[in-house]
């Protein structure tokens, strides 16, 4: 049976990874810890966010001032900047981690749960980031709020209600929205704990945190960027005007420029299409997996080593007649064969690791060197004196075999992937620990241990020189006393520091780019208000079950629609009927409309009329000079029963 191996994309990323291992060593290569770096940045983000929460005032009238007060001290500015840049880094490394999983084919079949939960986590990251920007309540926050509200206005349950919160005079409505945003910002962050648990629940011993060396570098770079380029706010938000532009954070606001290009329904199609495609991606590309092992119950002694070693928790122990027996969960199994090497008793077998056939060939050829490799490690040509066997994973090589194989050959070489880059996660680690006597089943001390060599070289690397050198040692009878592991383990601190600094150098330039969302050579006329129309239908209801305490009230169950007319210089720009919200049409009406007009002096007339009660009508007219990049916001005060004009700049 053909064993699965790397595709072209995998070999491409493997070439880059192996190149970086030459500077970082295979154990510290940051490409192997992209997800772990993202988790570390999330921790920094949460800790700095908790600090900011203690000094933040959720009232929108004081929110901006509280943020500026935090930034006025060195510690506050540092914590705010750490919060900003760790959030940006979180998105960057999460996306890089996702791309790495795609290119290395680690998202399909038995890995689909990790992939789908990872996509969900990425959406949550973006939602948290956008809500965090809104809480600053500067012009960027206000424009993000308006654009986001427009995006959700396509959904009938929202309509124009959200947009009206970010313009006009209803600060109480905005205050309530801010409290919801702050609660959501915290609650959704807690939800991440659940999604991250689902992300790793089928993985044994997930790499949650990066090595200390990488952690220290990331921390130093975050602090350096935060000190050199402290996070700053845009000018304060003003409910009386529409910001035409804002500084754009490309990590979180990537999709917002599309609002300038496509209508809202198309933006929804793009959003649903991208994340829907990502969610079903594991099933769109046909894949195959190696066959699962078969465990002979009569041979299993219940030692639990295969259960412990399995990288994907695909083995569990069940009790059979007062004895523990290993059982394979085929839907989780990767077919890596690591459990074959975990079993001292030969209870676990699989067709891709034909031990009897391999021993037969070795007995027949009596080679100087037997090479075991996986499809993802360096290729070695079989020739006179060298036998090569390809297994699903180098972690499938059992140390128990060495007692027989070393009697029939001069030596054994196991060629593995580049350390942590093992396609099956832990094959390289378990192989080295078993042969070095740190993990069961251990290589017998009575065997000539120096005749076994482990080499970490991926498929894009070359192992022929190492094979030749080992052959010379075997034939010359000069080999070490212990098992030797050859890997890239030297660190070039200068180059390592420079390479890992590159992502952090993008944080500042990608968060200060300014973009206009309205034509700056035009002016904007905006209608933004809430109107509670007169009732057209009422019902009698009682509010107590006790007969002597029953109160009967007539409750509004339907209200009148309103007709809104807007003319500019005698030209009708809007003539539309708005219905009350709610399933029974008994709630307030929210109106939000925008119109671009050329700068200059304009005559503006607005009229509101209740369709069920034509006598209830309100209107006004004004003449104003509108400058380029300015807005005229027209709102209506229910309490005062009159129109209010703001945004005259």
List keywords for this structure.
Cytochrome Bc1 Complex, Chain C; Alpha-Beta Plaits; four-stranded mixed β-sheet; 16 helices
Task: Summarize the structure in words.
By secondary structure, the protein is α/β, with parallel strands linked by helices. The chain has four domains: 30-284, Cytochrome Bc1 Complex, Chain C; 289-353, Alpha-Beta Plaits (2-Layer Sandwich), CATH 3.30.70; 355-486; 523-646, Immunoglobulin-like, CATH 2.60.40. It has helices spanning 8-24, 34-55, 60-71, 74-103, 112-136, 139-152, 171-200, 212-228, 264-284, 305-309, 338-342, 355-365, 402-408, 427-435, 464-476, 493-505; strands at residues 245-248, 294-295, 315-320, 323-328, 348-349, 369-373, 386-390, 412-416, 452-456, 484-486, 513-516, 523-531, 535-542, 552-559, 562-568, 571-578, 589-597, 600-610, 617-626, 631-637, 642-646. Strands 7-6-8-9-10 form a five-stranded parallel β-sheet, with helices on both faces. The longest helix is centred in the first third of the chain and has 30 residues, at 74-103. The mean pLDDT is 92.
Q: State the shape.
A: elongated
Approximate strand percentage = 15-25%
Cα-atom Rg, whole angstroms? Answer: 33 Å
Mean pLDDT value: 92
Helix content: 25-40%
CATH architecture of the largest domain: Up-down Bundle
What is the count of distinct domains? Answer: 4
Poorly predicted ranges: none
What is the third-level CATH name, the topology of the largest domain?
Cytochrome Bc1 Complex, Chain C
Total of DSSP H or I helical runs spanning 4+ residues: 16
Structural class: alpha/beta
Give the spatial strand order of the biggest sheet: 7-6-8-9-10
**Gap from first CA to last CA:** 76 Å
Tell me the name of the CATH class of the largest domain. Mainly Alpha
In total, the number of strands is: 21
Main sheet makeup: 5 strands, parallel
CATH superfamily assignment of the largest domain?
A: Cytochrome Bc1 Complex, Chain C
């Amino acid at each position: 049976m053909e064993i699965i191996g790397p595709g072209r994309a995998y070999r491409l990323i493997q070439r880059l990874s192996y190149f970086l291992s030459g500077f970082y060593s295979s154990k510290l290569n940051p490409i192997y810890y992209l997800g772990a770096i993202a988790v570390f940045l999330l921790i920094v983000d949460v800790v700095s966010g908790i600090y900011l929460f203690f000094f933040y005032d959720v009232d929108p009238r004081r929110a901006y001032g509280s943020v500026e007060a935090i930034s006025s001290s060195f510690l506050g500015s540092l914590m705010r900047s750490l919060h900003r840049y760790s959030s940006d880094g979180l998105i960057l490394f999460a996306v890089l981690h996702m791309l790495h999983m795609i290119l290395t084919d680690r998202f399909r079949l038995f890995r689909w749960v990790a992939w789908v939960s990872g996509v969900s986590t990425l959406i949550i990251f973006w939602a948290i980031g956008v809500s965090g920007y809104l809480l600053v309540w500067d012009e960027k926050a206000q424009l993000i709020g308006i654009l986001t509200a427009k995006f959700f206005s396509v959904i009938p349950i929202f309509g124009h209600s959200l947009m009206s919160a970010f313009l006009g005079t209803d600060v109480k409505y905005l205050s309530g929205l801010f409290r919801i945003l702050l609660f959501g910002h915290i609650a959704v962050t807690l939800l991440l704990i659940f999604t991250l648990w689902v992300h790793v629940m089928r993985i044994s011993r997930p790499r949650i945190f990066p090595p200390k060396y990488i952690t220290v570098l990331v921390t130093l770079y975050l602090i350096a960027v935060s000190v050199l380029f402290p996070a700053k706010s845009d000018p304060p938000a003003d409910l009386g005007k529409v910001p035409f532009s804002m500084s754009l954070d490309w990590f979180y606001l990537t999709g917002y420029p599309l609002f300038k290009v496509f209508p809202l329904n198309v933006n929804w199609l793009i959003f649903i299409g991208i994340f829907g495609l990502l969610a079903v991606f594991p099933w769109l590309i046909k894949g195959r997996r190696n066959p699962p092992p078969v465990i002979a119950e009569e041979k299993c002694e219940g030692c639990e080593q295969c259960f412990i070693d399995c990288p994907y928790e695909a083995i569990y122990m069940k009790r059979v007649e007062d004895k523990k027996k290993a059982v394979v969960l085929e839907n989780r199994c990767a077919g890596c064969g690591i459990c074959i090497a975990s079993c001292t008793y030969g209870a676990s077998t699989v067709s891709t690791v034909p031990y009897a056939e391999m021993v037969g060939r070795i007995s027949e050829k009596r080679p100087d060197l037997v090479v075991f490799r996986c499809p993802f490690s360096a290729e070695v040509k079989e020739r006179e004196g060298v036998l090569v066997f390809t297994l699903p994973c180098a972690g499938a090589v059992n140390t128990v075999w060495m007692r027989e194989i070393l009697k029939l050959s001069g030596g054994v070489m196991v060629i593995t992937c580049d350390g942590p880059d093992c396609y099956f996660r832990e094959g390289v680690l378990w192989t080295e620990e078993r042969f070095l006597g740190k993990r069961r089943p251990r290589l017998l001390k009575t065997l000539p241990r120096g005749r076994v060599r482990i080499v970490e070289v991926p498929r894009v690397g070359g192992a022929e020189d190492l094979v030749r050198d080992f052959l010379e040692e075997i034939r010359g009878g000069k080999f070490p006393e212990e098992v030797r592991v050859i890997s890239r383990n030297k660190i070039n601190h200068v180059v390592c520091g420079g390479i890992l600094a590159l992502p952090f150098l993008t944080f500042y330039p990608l968060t200060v780019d300014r973009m206009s969302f309205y034509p700056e050579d035009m002016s904007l006329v905006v209608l933004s208000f809430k109107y509670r129309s007169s009732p057209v239908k009422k019902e009698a209801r009682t509010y107590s079950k006790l007969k002597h305490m029953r109160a009967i009230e007539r409750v509004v169950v339907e209200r009148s629609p309103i007709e809104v007319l807007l003319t500019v210089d005698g030209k009708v720009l809007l003539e539309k009927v708005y219905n009350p919200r709610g399933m029974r049409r008994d709630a307030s009406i929210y109106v939000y409309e925008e119109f671009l007009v050329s700068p200059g002096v304009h005559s503006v007339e607005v009229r509101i009329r209740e369709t069920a009660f034509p006598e209830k009508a309100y209107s006004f007219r004004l003449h104003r000079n509108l400058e380029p990049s300015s807005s005229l916001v027209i709102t209506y005060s229910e309490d005062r029963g009159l129109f209010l004009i703001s945004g005259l700049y």
